[in-house]
Amino acid sequence: MEMSKSSSNNGELEKEVLVRMGSKRGVGSFESLVRLLAMALTLSAAVILGVDKQTKIVSIKILDTLPPINLPATAKWHYLSAFTYFVVVNAIACSYAAVSLVLLLANRGGKSGGGGGLGLVIVVVDLMMVALLFSSNGAAAAIGLVGYEGNSHVQWKKVCDVFGKFCDQGAAALIISLLGAITFLLLVMLAIKRLHCK
């Protein structure tokens, strides 16, 4: 009787160990998928704004008595420092997501999907990526808003009525980057949950 009781306890113990290992593997897989999504989103945002360029013919009137002069004007992302910052930060976040994904997959056998020191470093750098991405999104959104609305106080004219495609592509990149920042924030929240469960 005791032998059957101990074997049933061993069977339950083995099931519990298998369930715990499976849930850790599931969390690691989910984290890997989220990290892959963050990489894809930040890469997309950097590429979309990085190739953003539009040339239009603009009429400039010098004197009221003379006819307007038509000149080509080009809008490029690197003409604005906020957009340059945006592209560089998204490229850094994408590169970091790729490197951290490789490190996590290589260290999968370690403790709780990242091992002690490596896991902590990855969480801290994830948090830095959240801060960088949100700051670059804020800078790009501020410049984009001036492009859409202008600023009458300093006599800045709207440019998005002339360069509509350029502005629309910049807005799309901003939304995708914002989703990337939220994805990195989700990674930080997963790490906090994992630490809380310990």
Automatic annotation (TrEMBL):
It is a multi-pass membrane protein. Its main location: membrane. The chain crosses the membrane at residues 33-51, 82-106, 118-148, 171-192. Pfam families: CASP_dom. Keywords: Cell membrane, Membrane, Transmembrane, Transmembrane helix. It is found in: Cell membrane. It comes from the Eukaryota. One of its GO terms (cellular component) is plasma membrane. The keyword Transmembrane helix applies. InterPro entries: CASP/CASPL, CASP_dom, CASPL. Residues 26-182 form the Casparian strip membrane protein domain. Belongs to the Casparian strip membrane proteins (CASP) family. PANTHER family: CASP-LIKE PROTEIN 1U1. Homodimer and heterodimers. This is CASP-like protein. The lineage of its organism: Eukaryota, Viridiplantae, Streptophyta, Embryophyta, Tracheophyta.
